[in-house]
Design a protein that fits this description.
This protein has 151 residues and is an alpha+beta fold. It has a 5-stranded antiparallel beta sheet with strand order 1-2-3-4-5. Strand 1 and strand 2 form a beta hairpin. The N and C termini lie far apart (73 Å).
């Protein structure tokens, strides 16, 4: 019996502290995605994946990327064959913005890798083996404007 409160029962909050994080996470997960500020709807994510695939195809075609675009130069009596590719390692971050005209922005990071082969003849250099010579990190930002991703 408590001298100050008599026989009244006191509600103890200390038992809630271990389970409080669980309830917070549960509330956050049950909140619709539109109510949370940073989330991007799944259909916007899917549309960017399709856009990204088309973008990489255009890059490969116009920037002459891939093994079919091997260039050979002669330096110091040796032949050097080179080609560039976009690495499979990409990083993507989709963000909601405060703008009504550009509600989403995509930040795409990838590396452009250069492979080389050195040999005594141009044919031998072209046939390899190739090794990674250089890698450049590329960061591109794409806005989502009027329902479409823009270059």
């Amino acid at each position: 019996m408590n001298k100050l409160l008599g026989d009244r029962k006191i509600f103890r909050w200390d038992f809630l502290f271990p389970v409080l994080p669980f309830f917070i996470v549960l509330c956050l997960l049950s909140t619709p995605y539109m109510a949370r500020g940073g989330d991007v709807p799944p259909e916007i994510q899917r549309s960017f994946e399709q856009f990204k695939d088309r973008w990489f195809k255009k890059l490969c075609k116009h920037c002459r990327l891939g093994k079919r675009y091997i260039t050979v130069t002669k330096e110091n009596g040796r032949y050097i064959a080179k080609y560039k590719v976009i690495s499979n390692k990409t990083s993507l971050r989709l963000k909601r913005t405060e703008s009504k005209t550009t509600p989403y922005v995509a930040v795409l990071k990838y590396s452009e890798d250069e492979y080389i082969s050195v040999a005594d003849t141009a044919e031998k250099a072209k046939s390899g083996p190739f090794r990674l010579n250089d890698s450049k990190l590329v960061t591109e930002i794409f806005p989502y404007v009027h329902g479409k991703w823009r270059y």
